[in-house]
């Protein structure tokens, strides 16, 4: 059977369609927000929140919760709020606060799963959660539904606040001087990225999610000069790499998350070459 025939057969299965839908939505949302986070030098927030999400997953798994996402989502959003507020007002600021929270969450999550977990294959569960599932069979219709709702909220929120997010991204001091509630918009972005992390854990894994946020934005910045064009191209790159990565993982039986990130890295390398050849300057 040829690769195309095999792929066509796989696409007839609902679980494959579920993975493609979730992958495209997660890549779209993370790429949109990635441009803002990278330009504001806040890309580490996504990495920190993904670690917190892992800790929340560990608690949900030990508690026997059938719908882990309903527990992980509010915990990750609360962490986003605390990170921004504590990072700005406390003696432990910025990246130090995020490093402390992320390391503590991962350590606590792994400890909880080892001490209180009832499953025999704890290492397998941890690897699956951190690096993405090795099988796309894990995505259910419920996961797709939750992903769809959260994706609509993220894309809709980004579109609604686009002008204000643009202003805060490029000149936070000026935006604050003219009366824009900068802290509120930063908080909105953090909450949206928390949603993206929650829905992307099953597909890509907690540790690899930040790659979906950073790589497409950095790739687009190699060839584009405006915020709007970078955002649009980053979204396109993210979705295309996610779809190619999912399809490649199906054909070659490779881990979904790692395959997607690999294609994101390849895309970044290609856009770096294109940027150098064309003489484009990043935003």
TrEMBL record:
<protein>
    <submittedName>
        <fullName>ABC-type Mn2+/Zn2+ transport system, permease component</fullName>
    </submittedName>
</protein>
<feature type="transmembrane region" description="Helical">
    <location>
        <begin position="258"/>
        <end position="277"/>
    </location>
</feature>
<keyword id="KW-0813">Transport</keyword>
<dbReference type="GO" id="GO:0043190">
    <property type="term" value="C:ATP-binding cassette (ABC) transporter complex"/>
</dbReference>
<dbReference type="GO" id="GO:0010043">
    <property type="term" value="P:response to zinc ion"/>
</dbReference>
<keyword id="KW-0472">Membrane</keyword>
<dbReference type="InterPro" id="IPR001626">
    <property type="entry name" value="ABC_TroCD"/>
</dbReference>
<feature type="transmembrane region" description="Helical">
    <location>
        <begin position="69"/>
        <end position="84"/>
    </location>
</feature>
<keyword id="KW-1133">Transmembrane helix</keyword>
<comment type="similarity">
    <text>Belongs to the ABC-3 integral membrane protein family.</text>
</comment>
<dbReference type="GO" id="GO:0055085">
    <property type="term" value="P:transmembrane transport"/>
</dbReference>
<feature type="transmembrane region" description="Helical">
    <location>
        <begin position="45"/>
        <end position="63"/>
    </location>
</feature>
<feature type="transmembrane region" description="Helical">
    <location>
        <begin position="231"/>
        <end position="252"/>
    </location>
</feature>
<feature type="transmembrane region" description="Helical">
    <location>
        <begin position="96"/>
        <end position="116"/>
    </location>
</feature>
<dbReference type="InterPro" id="IPR037294">
    <property type="entry name" value="ABC_BtuC-like"/>
</dbReference>
<dbReference type="Pfam" id="PF00950">
    <property type="entry name" value="ABC-3"/>
</dbReference>
<feature type="transmembrane region" description="Helical">
    <location>
        <begin position="136"/>
        <end position="161"/>
    </location>
</feature>
<feature type="transmembrane region" description="Helical">
    <location>
        <begin position="12"/>
        <end position="33"/>
    </location>
</feature>
<keyword id="KW-0812">Transmembrane</keyword>
């Amino acid at each position: 059977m040829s690769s195309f025939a095999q792929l066509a057969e796989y696409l007839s299965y609902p679980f494959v369609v579920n993975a493609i839908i979730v992958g495209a939505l997660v890549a779209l949302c993370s790429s949109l927000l990635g441009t803002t986070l990278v330009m504001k030098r806040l890309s580490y927030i996504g990495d920190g929140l993904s670690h917190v999400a892992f800790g929340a997953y560990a608690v949900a798994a030990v508690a026997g919760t059938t719908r882990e996402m309903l527990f992980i989502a509010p915990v990750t959003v609360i962490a986003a709020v605390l990170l921004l507020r504590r990072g700005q007002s406390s003696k432990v600021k910025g990246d130090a606060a995020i490093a402390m929270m992320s390391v503590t969450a991962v350590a606590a999550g792994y400890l909880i799963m080892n001490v209180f977990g009832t499953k025999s294959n704890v290492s397998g569960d941890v690897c699956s959660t951190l690096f993405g599932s090795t099988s796309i069979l894990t995505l259910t219709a419920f996961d797709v539904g939750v992903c769809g709702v959260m994706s609509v909220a993220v894309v809709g929120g980004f579109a609604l606040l686009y002008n204000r997010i643009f202003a805060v991204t490029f000149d936070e001091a000026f935006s604050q001087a003219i009366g824009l509630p900068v802290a509120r918009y930063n908080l909105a972005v953090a909450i949206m990225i928390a949603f993206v992390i929650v829905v992307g854990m099953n597909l890509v894994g907690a540790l690899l999610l930040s790659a979906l946020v950073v790589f497409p934005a950095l790739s687009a910045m190699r060839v584009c000069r405006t915020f709007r064009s970078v955002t649009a191209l980053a979204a396109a790159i993210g979705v295309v790499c996610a779809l190619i990565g999912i399809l490649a993982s199906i054909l070659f039986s490779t881990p979904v998350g790692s395959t997607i990130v690999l294609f994101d890295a390849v895309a970044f390398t290609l856009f770096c070459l294109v940027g150098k050849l064309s003489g484009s300057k990043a935003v």
